[in-house]
Design a protein that fits this description.
With 287 residues, the chain is mostly helical. It folds into two domains: 50 residues; 231 residues, MetI-like fold (Orthogonal Bundle). The protein contains ten helices and no strands. Helix 2 runs antiparallel to helix 7, helix 3 crosses helix 5 and helix 5 crosses helix 7. The radius of gyration is 25 Å and the shape is globular.
Length: 287
């Protein structure tokens, strides 16, 4: 009698767990579908509004916040310069910080650096812009270097934490074999560990660049924006695609607003391409 009651309870618990499992699975699939549909609608809408503006002059003329809106030639140049400068500043620092955390960071200093990196990842980008404004812009004036420094600060947490995780995944046997053969630790890191973890580190770099390229708030306080072509990264205001989208979207001119949609499409495609590249590198590493 007791055995039958026990079997009945076990059977009831099993059915209950199966039911809960199915319900949660359906909810998970539903949430994923909602996210995919929302993203697809955003992409379709931006493409529909922005593709009408694309014409040869749109990519060869400078920006304008009046009249027909001009093009985004100077803005694309400014974004390219900002991305390259921010990579030159943030990538080496982020990778070195990640290597330190993975190899020597199991101490209080490492815990503090991780805490700072995680905190920085959650700081609003406009706060970073205000910080760089007070630290650099008030001294040097509006310039692309200040904007690149702000973007580099935003890139650091992603690169450092990604690098740490990837370097920790490198098998310890590789390090031990290299050290056993007489290779110093720094050569082991450069010739064994880093090449093994290169694909994952590059993935983290692409993801951080994709995030930085779409930022607008820090650029308001650092590069200001300009309708002219500026090749000097250390002097004068400069245009950027993300900043132009923000400024042109609030223009009273309808043609300028349409140009903002065209620039938004360029920026969206740029970010999507970077994310696809990062994903392809990650998949290749798994294979």
């Amino acid at each position: 009698m007791a055995s039958g009651s026990l079997n009945s309870n076990l059977s009831g618990n099993y059915r209950r767990r199966k039911t809960v499992d199915k319900v949660m699975t359906v909810i998970a699939y539903l949430c994923a579908a909602i996210a995919i549909v929302a993203l697809t609608l955003v992409i379709i809408y931006v493409v529909a509004r922005g593709i009408n503006v694309w014409r040869p002059a749109f990519f060869t003329e400078n920006t304008a916040l009046f009249g027909d809106g001009g093009g985004i030639y100077n803005a694309m140049y400014g974004t390219a310069m900002l991305v390259l400068l921010s990579m030159a500043i943030g990538v080496p620092v982020g990778i070195m910080a990640g290597i330190y955390l993975a190899e020597f960071g199991d101490n209080r200093l490492g815990d503090f650096i991780r805490f700072v990196a995680d905190t920085m990842a959650g700081i609003p980008s406009i706060v970073v812009g205000l910080f760089v404004y007070g630290a650099l812009v008030l001294i040097m004036g509006w310039n692309a270097f200040a904007g690149a420094c702000a973007l580099a600060i935003l890139m650091l947490p992603v690169i450092s934490r990604t690098t740490e995780g990837i370097v920790r995944m490198v098998p310890g046997e590789l390090r031990e074999a290299s050290l056993a053969l007489g290779l110093p630790q720094w050569k082991t890191m450069l010739r064994i560990v880093l090449p093994t973890a290169a694909a994952g580190i590059i993935t983290g770099v692409f993801l951080s660049v994709a995030r930085a390229a779409g930022e607008t708030a820090p650029l308001i306080f650092t590069i200001l924006g300009s309708n002219f072509f500026n090749t000097n990264p250390f002097e004068g205001a400069m245009a950027a695609v993300s900043l132009y989208v923000y400024q042109a979207s609030s223009s009273p001119y309808e043609a300028v607003q349409e140009a903002a949609w065209g620039a938004a499409l360029v920026l969206m495609l740029f970010v999507l391409v970077l994310n696809f590249i990062a994903r392809a590198i990650a998949l290749r590493q798994k294979v």
